[in-house]
Write a structure and sequence with these properties.
The chain is mainly alpha-helical. The protein has 25 helices and two strands.
């Protein structure tokens, strides 16, 4: 079938995956799609003319459908295609669509999807979309079409007028918040109250995308974002997501938010810790099969212990962790049996606890088996900072006296420390040498390790 390069014969829609699809005929009469012939230059002819065609349409009927997998035009480099679409001037038109009260739900939805697709391609394209006021336009469409112009303070999830449209808007906003470098705060801050409201949605996709959008926004721990979220009272709600079964992506997003809140702020840590967090994390480490969820759970435990300087509070949290023997045993199991990156995060939790533990609590940890778990780690595959953390933990153990020193010797810990004196990293070498000099007199002979 011959296809003439005349844009009047084409309908142009926004595809979910690639940003644009093309069909023959009038949009109102057919949805049939055709493949572009080899002689037609996609980059040089089709996209510029397609966008020019859209820009001259007043009723926007040429955006009657948004594509699925089988309807996409897949170029060798989707980013190049989307960059060309942006270069042809489509973004201001999409923003205008969302602000218009007459475009229609289908056009609103497709415009939101297209913005989300473009934003997901690169930080530079995302930055351009934000400069074009994409988020204010999406929010305007959200309040007008989904909540019938209800103010953000009075939004109620049961009053959603168009759930499908809400899904597309929140997904697009999440993509606009995603990635590094972080977006300019002023360009995204207005979205946070809306996202907080959608955390309470009964629609799983809306709730998930709202959760991850907030995880992206809090990733830099900017105090303005954290304050908005605190005012909305979402921390306990987010902590409750850890109890949700069968939705690991939601749990992972919630853990990321809690980790971002916990960095160096004791007010937030107290709220998080008082939400029965240890019980939930123990369940996640024991039941949830996803490695990413377990790693993020370990991050959260480490940040609760490591961040801040109020030792009385650290001591309280640490005591609760030590007394939760099930949690410590789970961490030791991960150190022994898990994949290396998960082993390392579990190691850091134990190391951080040991750093602030009282002698009595450290002795409890020793009885639970932390010494053999540390001694049997393969140092060859660990980063230098992790090795130094293990050596620091050995130092805390050795400071307890001869009994702990004997256990360390029996588990091969002294040999581990000796071997690390030949490590190529100077910090590791000095830390290992210090332990030998301080606790074993600097003499490498076996008799000096006879602790009976």
């Amino acid at each position: 079938m011959a296809v003439e390069a005349n844009m009047n014969t084409y309908t142009v829609g926004v595809g979910i995956g690639i940003g644009i699809d093309i069909g023959i005929g009038d949009a109102s009469s057919t949805n049939e799609k055709v493949s572009l012939p080899p002689f037609l230059s996609l980059h040089n002819i089709v996209l510029p003319q397609a966008v020019a065609h859209l820009l001259t349409k007043t009723d926007m009927k040429s955006m009657d459908h948004w594509g699925d997998d089988k309807n996409r035009i897949n170029g060798d480099n989707p980013t190049d295609i989307r960059s060309l679409v942006v270069g042809c001037g489509i973004v201001p038109m999409l923003v205008s669509n969302l602000k218009s009260s007459t475009s229609g739900n289908e056009v609103y939805g497709q415009s939101a999807i297209c913005l989300g697709n473009i934003a997901g391609e690169s930080p530079s394209l995302r930055a351009y979309l934000l400069e074009c006021d994409s988020i204010p336009a999406l929010l305007e469409s959200l309040t007008r079409e989904v909540f019938q112009n209800v103010s953000v303070d009075n939004m109620n999830m049961v009053d959603i007028n168009d759930e499908s449209h809400a899904e597309k808007i929140i997904w697009s906003i999440a993509n606009l918040c995603r990635g590094r470098p972080a977006p300019i705060l002023e360009q995204v801050l207005n979205a946070t109250p809306h996202l907080c409201h959608f955390l309470e949605s009964n629609n799983a996709d809306i709730q998930l995308n709202a959760c991850w959008a907030l995880a992206y926004l809090t990733d830099e721990s900017q105090k303005e974002v954290l304050q908005v979220l605190e005012d909305a009272g979402i921390l306990r709600l987010v902590a409750s997501f850890l109890k949700v079964e069968g939705r690991p992506s939601l749990v992972l997003g919630a853990l990321r938010i809690l980790c971002n809140f916990s960095y160096g702020n004791w007010r937030y840590i107290e709220i998080i810790f008082n939400s029965n967090i240890l019980e939930d994390i123990s369940r996640l480490l024991r039941i949830m099969g996803g490695k990413d969820v377990r790693i993020e759970a370990c991050f959260l435990l480490s940040s609760i212990i490591a961040e801040g300087g109020n030792l009385s509070r650290v001591d309280g949290y640490m005591k609760a962790m030590v007394q939760s023997q099930n949690l410590v045993q789970l961490l030791l199991e991960l150190i022994r049996d898990a994949h290396m990156d998960l082993k390392v995060e579990a190691l850091w939790v134990i190391g951080n606890i040991s750093e602030v533990a009282s002698d009595k609590d450290l002795q409890i940890l020793i009885k639970m088996g932390i010494i053999p778990a540390l001694c049997h780690m393969n140092m060859e595959f660990l980063e230098n900072k992790t090795i130094i953390m293990i050596l620091d933990t050995f130092g805390h153990i050795l400071s307890l006296g001869d009994e702990s020193k004997a256990i360390l010797h029996e588990c091969g810990g002294v040999e581990v420390i000796e071997d690390l004196q030949t490590h190529k990293n100077d910090e590791v070498y000095r830390a290992a040498s210090y332990l030998i000099d301080e606790h074993f007199g600097g003499d490498d002979s076996d008799e000096d390790y006879d602790l009976e």
